[in-house]
Design brief:
flat; 2 domains; mainly alpha; Tetracycline Repressor, domain 2
Amino acid sequence: MAQAISTQPHMASPGDVFALMKPRVMSLVIFTALVGMLVSPMDSHPVLMLISLLAIAAGAGASGAINQWYDRDIDAQMERTANRPLPRGLVHPDEALSLGLIISGMSVLVLYFTGGAMAAGMLLFTIFFYGYVYTVWLKRSTTQNIVIGGAAGAFPPVIGWLAAGGDIGLSPFILFLIIFAWTPPHFWALALVRNDDYTRVGVPMLPVVHGFKATKDQIFVYALIVGVVGMVPSFIGMSSYAYLALSAVLGLRFVMLSWTVWRSADDDMQSPMALFRFSILYLFLIFLGLGIDAAIAPFWTGF
């Protein structure tokens, strides 16, 4: 039975508001944007970088609030999202939308002064892309929602790169491509586990529309792409051979888990969940490797 959205008056707590901004997603945005700053060839003042990072985080949180405002109807019917602040009536929808719009504007304005016009413009585009293009348009209309919509999550390291003074070029594009290729197998693995949720609310995720076999085929294909793209920074002089070894090992593990999912029975939820969990670790370690590599590069060259 669908959970009704409470409309009773309630004074939102700081925790309710923070949950509205999707803190787990925000933490990933902060981390990848920071790495984007670290690998940028330009130097920026540490204080400006910190304020820029906070602005990028605020923009991500604002787009999360807009997403939850629009999706509150289906969130109330899905087991994974039923405890979010809006379905539980902990935050009024008007407050959620106002919060998202106001913080969006403030974050872009702050980033304009600390990170420049290009970084601010890309942050504005990212908020629009996630809040409207993905949430309003793609999510409920196409099985490619995650593929195209994944661009929103891939922009933060590019924004960080630009905020640190870097120019648009091949290196920030590779940072974007790593997350862009990673997003479909990451979310489709979860979609296999949460297929009943998505079916109930009519969201056309790939397993809902085309079935488990087609989804597993796509997961494996994208896993191969992830494995290759993760090593590209070393091939273009962006990182060292030490990073290459790390990315090769992680990529191989990603492909092996995807192969296990591809061979698994449709009622096996452990294999896709194992891939989903490792995919989070994969992205963290890949960007951690890039960040550490950039930090020690001035002291350790030639390896």
